[in-house]
User: Fold this.
Amino acid sequence: MIIAQQKPVKDIAAMISECKKVLLVGCAGCVTVCLSGGEKETEVLASSLRIMRKMEDKPLETVTYTATRQCDPEYVAMIDNYTKDVDAIISLACGVGVQYLAERFTDKWVVPALDTKFIGGSTVHGNWEEKCGLCGECILHRTGGICPIIRCSKSILNGPCGGSQYGKCEVSKDVDCAWQLIYDRMKALGKLDKLMEFHPPKDWSKSRDGGPRKAIREDVMID
Amino acid sequence: MKTESKLQQILDSGQFAVTAEIGPPKHSSAEGIRHHAEMMKDYVDATNITDNQTAIVRLSSIAAGVHVQSCGIEPIVQMTCRDRNRIAMQSDLLGAYSLGMRNVLCLSGDHQKFGNHPTAKNVYDIDSMQLIYYLRRMRDEKLFFSGEEIKEHEPRFFIGAVANPFADPFEFRVARLEKKVEAGAQFIQTQCIFDMERFERFMEMVRERGIDQRVHILAGVTPMKSWRAAKYIQNNVSGMIVPDELVERLKNAEDPKREGVEICIEQIKYIKENIKGVHGVHIMAIAWEEVVPEIVERSGLYPRPKI
Assistant:
């Protein structure tokens, strides 16, 4: 899922300092699961902003709504009725949701409440880890199911580099060396010979370097 | 594959080679580089020019290489994968060759976190293994990295790589070295050796696989100025091992700098006489280039062969 974290409330407040009434839109997708932009977080943020503004003697009126998904026009359309008299919309979705709102509500000031961090999963409650670099062409079959693109600090494909020691990456003792993990797993699977194969450079045109990517499935198109 | 590199001639003739390192400055004057080059020129066969080492902005390794060359030393241009994509790398390689550079050392490069621009975006479009592979292909098959033909004047570098016997997983280090040789590495410079026992075990594995017959290995040594420097490396530099005995020896010395030089000379003599498969020594006197001539001379490696 997409992992996002809320910006400091004062930063969000600064984005809407001129507004009298705002709509806060949560998202019931990934950001609900990672506890940053669901219904509960939306209500908490709304009341925090109201309290801050009250203390400044500039009261703020808030409306809240949590969309099933902000990355789907069908659900974004369901927000229409809430937007009429607000000065701004605060999206508690990932960067995709913010953009879907801005695209639909062209005359509204749409601002992000979250920083979209990465795609990954949780380890224990309250701890999330990045696992996929969205490179556009998966190589996990060559690396024992461990992604060096995002888990190696240098994205090395023929690792490990000379900075790997005691299982950790040179950048921090808190970061596991992805290539040590790959080595251990390949060894356990009896596939160390795979690591002797020369791994060619990535085709980055399949990643963000080719401009915004599209995925088209004609077989599921309705029209 | 033959190149115009003098270092290659020395190594291929079976002579024990000596290389050293010159670190370019954090400013735009070449005076210091030229001074170090003049001082070292009769004592080493070639000098590495580091490429923004530890991710600190410094005068470019290729530009520094030109200065060093004009002082009469053959440069080994270091090229890391951290700062340039494959387009910029090839452009710089063509440029370096046109300026007379004949040796390139391919490295991953230290992460930008350690430098003076920790908020920079790193590149790592290709890794050191791929750089070695494509440099060889440029020379031997006249192809750009993309596979497009180089119609004329392909760069013909003597290709170097690094190996770190002190990094983990230890048992894979020799295999990865072999992978670099397969990719096209012709000479190898190792990370600074402080733990001689581990280096000997590494070389034993190298000989078992016959890698020393296929590539020239130069053992990396570094004279230490103080026990604090040794302790710092021991605790803070990932991929290096400094034994406690070395720290203690420097700590108990009356003149630690002298002791650091003595230790380095002892290491070189030991490696040359006792460790089979090592074809030379690479002296990394970090911010202490002045001491290189003495180390070379007193290690019995002076005079250097004339090519």
